[in-house]
Amino acid sequence: MGIVSPGFQGRPRPAGPALPPGQYLTEDFPVLSAGPTPTVSPQDWEFVLATETGAEYRWSWPELMALPQETPTVDIHCVTRWSKRDTSWQGVSLDTLLDGVDTAAGYAVAHSYGGYSTNLPLTDLRDGRAWIAHTYEGRPLPAEHGGPARLLVPHLYFWKSAKWVRGIRLTTTDEPGFWETAGYHDYGDPWREQRYAGD
């Protein structure tokens, strides 16, 4: 039988539901970006949804704000291993934006002001799983966290929730985005630890 020092309690365990493997809990909201933070005012912001046939659907900031709004509270998980619980957002569901869009696409590529892009299966943007979020914890989303609006896809690693989103292009083939081309996993499921290509 091993010897245990008095007072030894073992490793601390996160309170609440389990985190994805390899993640640690943080109360902060770390700022991680691949380049400089774009400055985009709501007056100049526009979101464009383009189908594989070239059809385009456009929303200005006032038009986005006039759509039905949702207030998801979700856990988020960064590929750099931090997780943050119960984050509160407000935005427009992708279900609302895709309603009535005629498409046979199976994939989507999100594009951002500043040139960033990321790819996702279209099914991951449907059924209440993704939003164009403009408010965080009751306040306008700060630029360093992707404001005025970012894609929010909380069930995937957070690099898939493209900051400063300006549009989504629907495609019939999978087209890797910025980090995926650089060696990150094509899908990015935190529960399967899909951090890098080959995971």
Automatic annotation (TrEMBL):
Coiled-coil annotated residue ranges, if any: none
Gene3D superfamilies: Oxidoreductase, molybdopterin-binding domain (3.90.420.10)
Top-rank taxon, per record: Bacteria
Disordered: annotated span: 1-22
InterPro entries with a match to the protein in the record: OxRdtase_Mopterin-bd_dom, OxRdtase_Mopterin-bd_sf
Domain (Oxidoreductase molybdopterin-binding): residue spans on this chain: 35-179
SUPFAM superfamilies to which the protein is assigned, alphabetical: Oxidoreductase molybdopterin-binding domain
Protein name in the entry: Molybdopterin-binding protein
Lineage: Bacteria, Bacillati, Actinomycetota, Actinomycetes, Micromonosporales
